[in-house]
Amino acid sequence: MFRKVGGAMLEPILTPPENGRVRITWIGHASFFLQFAGNSVVVDPNWAKWHGPVKRQRHPGLRLHEVPEVDLVLVTHAHFDHLHKPSLKILQSTDGIVVPRGSASLVKKLGFSAVHEVRIWDEIRVKGMEIIHTPCHHWGARYVHDTHRDYGGYIVKADGKSVFHCGDSTYFDGFTEIGKRHDIDIALMPIGAYKSPSGRDVHMNPEQAVRAFADLGAKVLIPMHYGTFPLGNEALHEPVERLLTEADRLGISDKILVPEEGVGIEW
User: Whole-angstrom Cα distance, residue 229 to residue 50?
Assistant: First the structure.
């Protein structure tokens, strides 16, 4: 609990990438800042220092107040580590926030100009950017009995690039269906919290994330959902080590990009 928080908060790159490229900045946990030549989004923003008794182990890669206004904010599901209201209250977006079906009531008073509630495979088009809500195998309740809330991931398409944010998920055959429906350049895949304290099978392990990546047919895998909040019983360093070992075994190490918080990766 008293371990010193690692990492550093950096200044975001405000100039957009060149045409035909995307810049992906991992903020930490499942939070990302995605920039295209003419569009930008933030996914699952979370600058919390604590989640109940769980302390953040690494600083967010960007300072919250320095993140520029984006086109949209995307939230994959209502769990507290993905839908963090204090962070959402500060972020600014021109075209509102996108949430799964059943979660609009959680964000409608947070100051967004519009709330887009989506079902699986719904598509939203904003300023030439396309957002597709994709299935996953998880659950969406924020408390105990609000099981009506949906959950999923997103594909963001803009300027000829496509980025898939998985959200939280166990491994399931739906990844193949996603890959059949949409070409994916970069897959942001969760690799941590697989040794759940509850014993439930609720998150993929690194080897399953690689298998899901293969099912998707994506070109590059960027891992997430590890190292920030110790939500599983595995060691903090274990997920990335297992990911790289599996990638090496399969001969796909060149397809894995392990990010540093706050450092933009252009592709």
Answer: 8
Closest CA to 243 of 190, 201, 164, 199: 190
Q: Does residue 6 sit within a domain?
A: no
Query: Phi and psi (nearest 5°) for 89?
Result: -65, -25
Q: Which domain holds residue 159?
A: 23-251
Give this prediction's pTM.
0.96
Q: Is residue 184 part of a domain?
A: yes
pLDDT above 90 (res 5): no
Residues contacting 83, CB < 8 A, separation 6+: 44, 75, 77, 99, 103, 106, 107, 142
Q: Report how far residue 72's alpha carbon sits from residue 113's, in angstroms, rounded to the nearest whole number.
A: 10
Percent residues over pLDDT 70 in the chain: 99
Q: Band the pLDDT of 140: cuts 50, 70, 90.
A: confident
